């Protein structure tokens, strides 16, 4: 990742370069660009679901998703054909939680992922199917646990080396609420509109984590926070100020415009992805990915 000049600031993250965005290891390994986007989305969904089951706060989950994205960026990064997204997801969440105030044991992580990756988990079934989860399908024997634990720790080492041990991830959620308070949109006594505004702002920032444009890798937290506040205020019907208030926070109109459009398009893209993979989910394991790539190659031959 290319560090920004102010990377020591608590409000900044290392951002990707244009070169890293244009070429990835997965593309060099002949993973189609649309499938690469689907795999990133599936990895983020898996990480989010695992974090919720582990009762981790959204800040830790979001940081893990960003770390996962960083791993697969650029020609020097990881490849989906070599590093299965399910393994990188588990390692990202384990590593992020470990350096937080809520570390998780390897057994807790692996038990949750065994459930989410089982055939009867909600993530692996068609949308219309409501089969009751089968405990036998996600039970980890002692031998299976020890094997999975070795894989998890090895993957964590690979992940750390790939991101150059840069584990700092600043999330814009708290910053967005601070901006709302500064703009006088969050009064001491909450109102229905102020509550809706705050909730919609946070929702946009959570949705942006799933963006195919990798917004958390290409824009700094203040810009993401400003765009979420701007879009949420427009949707809820809250007038913040007539002045170009975003410039006070060092965000120019061009960047704001791009981010507002990108945030607004996320929900539609996510719906399309869920529909696209409704019959069993995106391939999360290496062998599943190979089957999908071979199927595409046969169809295009």
TrEMBL record:
GO molecular function: cyclin-dependent protein serine/threonine kinase regulator activity
Gene3D superfamilies referenced in this protein's UniProt entry, alphabetically: Cyclin-like (1.10.472.10)
Source organism superkingdom: Eukaryota
Database matches in InterPro entries: Cyclin-like_sf, Cyclin/Ssn8
GO biological process, one term: regulation of transcription by RNA polymerase II
PANTHER family referenced in this protein's UniProt entry, alphabetically: CYCLIN
Protein's recorded name: Cyclin-L2
Organism listed in the record: Lepraria neglecta
């Amino acid at each position: 990742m290319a560090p920004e000049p102010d990377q020591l600031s608590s409000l900044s993250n290392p951002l990707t370069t244009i070169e890293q965005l244009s070429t990835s290891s997965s593309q060099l390994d002949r993973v189609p660009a649309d499938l690469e986007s689907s795999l990133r989305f599936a990895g983020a969904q898996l990480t989010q679901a695992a974090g919720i089951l582990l009762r981790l706060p959204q800040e830790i989950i979001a940081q893990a998703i960003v770390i996962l994205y960083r791993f697969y960026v650029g020609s020097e990064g990881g490849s989906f054909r070599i590093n299965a997204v399910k393994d990188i997801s588990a390692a990202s969440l384990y590593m992020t939680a470990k350096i937080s105030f809520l570390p998780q044991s390897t057994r807790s992580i692996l038990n949750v992922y065994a459930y989410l990756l089982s055939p009867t988990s909600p993530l692996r079934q068609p949308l219309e199917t409501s089969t009751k989860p089968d405990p036998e399908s996600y039970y980890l024997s002692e031998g299976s646990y020890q094997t999975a634990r070795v894989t998890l720790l090895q993957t964590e080492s690979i992940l750390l080396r790939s991101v150059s041990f840069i584990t700092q991830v600043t999330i814009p959620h708290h910053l967005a609420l601070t901006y709302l308070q500064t703009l006088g949109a969050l009064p001491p006594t909450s109102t229905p509109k102020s509550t809706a505004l705050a909730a919609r702002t946070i929702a946009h920032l959570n949705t942006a984590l799933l963006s195919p444009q990798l917004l958390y890798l290409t824009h700094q937290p203040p810009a993401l926070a400003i765009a979420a506040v701007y879009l949420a205020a427009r949707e809820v019907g809250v007038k913040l100020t007539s002045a170009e208030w975003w410039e006070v926070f060092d965000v120019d109109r061009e960047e704001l415009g791009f981010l507002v459009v990108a945030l607004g398009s996320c929900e539609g893209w996510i719906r399309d992805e869920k529909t696209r993979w409704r019959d069993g989910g995106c391939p999360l394991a290496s062998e599943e990915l190979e089957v999908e790539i071979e199927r595409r190659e046969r169809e295009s031959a």
